[in-house]
Amino acid sequence: MGTQRFTPEFKEEAVRQITERGYSVADVSERLGVSAHSLYKWLRSIRPDNSGHQAQDLLDARTEILRLKAQLKRTEEERDILKKAARYFAREPD
């Protein structure tokens, strides 16, 4: 038993039925006699790669985390200074 070969046009039409016409992968798989695994593989190969976009989002998130950590540290230092000042001024004069 050899594996069945499909033309690029057939693959594109199968993917189009899922992406543009709204059919489920199971429906298209059953109607066309193609495994769902193959359809998912075709979907991944035809859809544009979002890894660059995801990498940029990850970099932006890390940058934001570093900025927020620095802001938190500065705020904690300011709080500590204010606590010390409050203790100093709260002391009773001798």
UniProtKB/TrEMBL annotation:
Keyword Coiled coil: yes
Protein keywords: Coiled coil
Gene3D superfamilies: Homeodomain-like (1.10.10.60)
Recorded GO MF terms: DNA binding; transposase activity
Keyword Nucleotide-binding: no
GO aspect biological process, one term: DNA transposition
Superkingdom of source: Bacteria
Coiled coil (residue ranges): 58-85
InterPro entries in the record: Homeodomain-like_sf, RD_transcriptional_regulator, Transposase_8
Family assignment from sequence similarity: Belongs to the transposase 8 family.
Annotated protein name in UniProt: Transposase
Organism: Rahnella sikkimica
